[in-house]
Design goal:
Layout (H helix, E strand, L loop, with lengths): L1 H27 L8 E3 L17 E6 L2 E4 L1 E2 L5 E2 L8 E6 L7 E6 L5 E5 L2 E5 L24 E4 L8 E6 L13 E2 L3 E6 H38 L6 H18 L4 H5 L6 H19 L5 H21 L9 H30 L3 H27 L3 H15 L3 H63 L1 H14 L4 H13 L10 H16 L3 E7 L9 H19 L6 E8 L3 E9 L13 H14 L7 E5 L3 E9 L3
Parallel strand pairs: 14-15
Antiparallel strand pairs: 1-13, 2-3, 2-6, 4-5, 5-12, 6-11, 7-10, 7-13, 8-9, 8-11, 15-16, 16-18, 17-18
Helix pairs in contact: 2-3, 3-5, 5-6, 5-7, 6-7, 7-8, 7-10, 8-10, 10-13, 10-14, 13-14, 14-15
């Protein structure tokens, strides 16, 4: 056992050592590079005050005639010659960056871009794109994306010039014609691109991980169905994972590019549906508290549907009640998950194997997260405070955002652990049953062989009975002194006939007769005092096989080492109890050293005690003398 435990610990450590670097390497791409961005926009944004021309010179150029425009103090420039005239703005680039990239928000304007009078981009390549000869038109629509232009590596110190169209509105005074330069941003292209990579990675990695989990659950469902265990629990759990995947993907920046802008909030809707599916999964595992679990599940599904209907604006108009109904599924989900967690603890105490595993995992996760928050205080300043502040806001604002996600994750992870443990235990039980079935078949053949040999021995004695009677009569008349020795020889032949058990319990008959045959082959004499057993015992066939086989195997192994190998069996019913007793000889008689039990024997006794544990320690008795060993088990019979 110690060797197995040490091997398991080594395997776990090696797995962690290999997995941690892999996980860090994968998660590395979810964090964008440090972004260095320079806002070169002249026009103020979001109601901010104008901060000057930032080094730009704004002017018109008509075939080399340059007229500088006058700033209006709000980001616009006045003094254009006519409506729709193309104007220019230039500045020297002094900002040093790796992979320099321009981002120009043009909306419906068109532009041409120059670096030291060399054109590097234009919206209208068919026009005369010489500076001073451009006549750029306005677009008839608004662009959805900004213009992105990469600058050459030797851009530093060169002059950036942007030619831009202006709107041809109704006639106004010349001195009131105002043009507005586009927003210009200079940034590191690597950092900008890495932000897209990080955004995609932070979305896809959780989705792929959840998808892999969904595949494993469905594979386990198919495997269970193939061995005759058809249950909808695993596909319902997989459905909860599917809704969670949809919620994760809905938060992606590119979601609306693929699916458009929905009339509802897909992130929270799919999350609420995932909570409902998770509650349904837990309900399918309940027995005693199923009505309570079912009510929680139905309530969560109802408020999730209501959440969707409210967003159609057909039930209630926007206002305080509108916001209340949007947040209602969060509150209901949080409370129902808490109720199921408490109910799971209760069911665990009542013997539910699934909820016992789930409660144990949940306790470990909670303790681990609390320790993480405590340890992170010096290493991640502000993180623990942020978590506690958000939890406090959940309670005071009656909108449990973080609380709901924490409880949901706790139920999901602990439920997954319980599923894995339940699957492993079921598989172990199935393999144990197959091994027991194979052992029962083997013992049945040995029992049959024992019966056949006994029948042959009895037939041989019966065949010679008349000869023995005739010889006994002759010896009584002629040589009476030899009569005693001859009778002793006949008694020995009768005693040599191997015993056979024939009780009402067929499984017990097979197990004992098979082991009696094994004992006989090893030269161990057997004696059966009583052989009375009920047709049905309060044990499964697997438990009965493990109990009897381990008792008899221990007895046979010990008796085979003794000088006078023998086993005595006595099993009968008394006062609504089944009593099974096995006594065997063992090494330890005078002149020999007492046999030290092997680890296998000790393991067999542990199995016996584990099976008898349900009735208490006083239902098993062990008596050990110098050269004998006796074990007795008492099994209460059902009424």
């Amino acid at each position: 056992m110690k060797k197995q435990l040490s091997k398991l610990i080594i395997a776990l450590l090696l797995s962690i050592i290999i997995c941690v670097p892999s996980a860090l390497a994968v998660l590395f791409y979810t964090k964008p590079m440090t972004d260095v961005t320079y806002d070169l926009s002249i026009c103020p944004q979001d109601g901010q005050e104008w901060k000057g021309d930032k080094g730009w010179t704004v002017y018109t150029n008509v075939e080399g005639k340059i007229t500088e425009l006058t700033p209006d103090g709000a980001g616009g420039y006045m003094g254009a010659d006519y409506l729709g005239q193309t104007f220019y703005y230039s500045r020297t680039l002094t900002e040093e960056l790796d992979s320099p990239t321009l981002r120009i928000g043009t909306v419906n304007q068109t532009v041409s871009i120059y670096l030291d009078n060399d054109m590097i981009y234009t919206d209208w390549p068919e026009l005369d794109n010489r500076i001073g000869y451009l006549e750029l038109p306005m677009l008839m629509f608004d662009r959805t994306d900004a213009i992105i232009v990469s600058l050459p590596p030797d851009y530093l110190g060169k002059t950036l010039t942007i030619a831009q169209s202006s709107p041809a509105y109704s006639e106004v005074q010349k001195d009131t014609i105002t043009v507005w330069p586009c927003n210009v941003t200079l940034y590191c292209g690597y950092a900008y691109e890495s932000s897209f990579i990080a955004s995609a990675s932070s979305t896809m990695f959780p989705a792929v991980l959840l998808f892999s989990l969904e595949l494993l659950l469905l594979a386990a469902f198919i495997w269970n169905a193939s061995v005759g265990n058809f249950s909808l629990r695993l596909p319902v759990f997989a459905l909860a994972i599917l809704f969670r995947i949809c919620s994760v993907l809905s938060k992606a920046d590119f979601f609306t590019k693929y699916f458009g802008i929905p009339f509802f909030d897909p992130v929270w809707l799919f999350f609420h549906l995932s909570v409902g599916a998770l509650l349904l999964f837990l309900t399918l595992h309940t027995d005693r508290l199923r009505p309570m679990f079912a009510a929680c599940t139905a309530l969560q599904w109802c408020v999730s549907v209501l959440h969707l209907l409210v967003q159609t604006d057909k039930i209630i108009k926007y206002g305080d009640m509108y916001v209340f109904f949007l947040d209602l599924p969060k509150t209901v989900g949080f409370l129902t998950l808490l109720v199921t967690l408490v109910g799971g603890v209760y069911l665990a105490k009542k013997g539910s194997r699934f909820f016992r595993h789930m409660s144990q995992a949940a306790l470990v996760i909670v303790i681990g997260y609390v320790l993480f928050l405590i340890i992170s205080i010096p290493f991640l300043p502000g993180y623990t405070t942020s978590v506690l502040s958000r939890l406090y806001n959940d309670l005071t604002l009656y909108s449990p955002n973080l609380s709901l996600k924490l409880v949901y994750t706790l139920c999901l992870v602990s439920g997954l652990f319980a599923v894995v443990m339940e699957f492993i235990e079921q598989e172990m039980e199935r393999r144990t049953e197959l091994a027991v079935l194979a052992a029962k078949n083997e013992l049945a053949m040995e029992s049959y062989d024992n019966l056949r040999r006994q029948s042959e021995e009895v037939m041989m004695l019966r065949h010679d009975t008349m000869k023995h009677y005739t010889l006994l009569r002759t010896m009584a008349e002629e040589t009476p002194e030899r009569l005693t020795s001859y009778l002793d020889e006949l008694i020995g032949q009768v005693e040599a006939v191997r015993p056979v058990v024939d009780s009402q319990n067929q499984i017990l008959n097979i197990l004992i007769n098979g082991k009696l045959n094994t004992a006989s082959d090893k030269g161990i004499s057997t004696e059966i005092t009583r052989s009375d057993a009920p047709a049905k015992l309060p044990l499964t066939d697997t438990e009965l096989c493990c109990l009897i086989v381990n008792i008899l195997d221990n007895a046979i192994n010990a008796a085979s080492e003794s000088k006078k190998p023998e086993i005595k069996l006595d099993f009968h019913c008394n006062d609504n109890h089944f009593i099974f007793s096995c006594e065997n000889s063992m090494a330890g008689a005078a002149g020999t050293n007492k046999k030290i039990p092997t680890p296998e024997h000790g393991y067999g006794l542990k199995i016996i005690r584990q099976i008898m544990k349900r009735w208490g320690d006083n239902m098993i008795s062990v008596e050990e003398a110098e050269d004998t060993y006796k074990i007795t088990v008492v099994i209460p019979l059902s009424d």
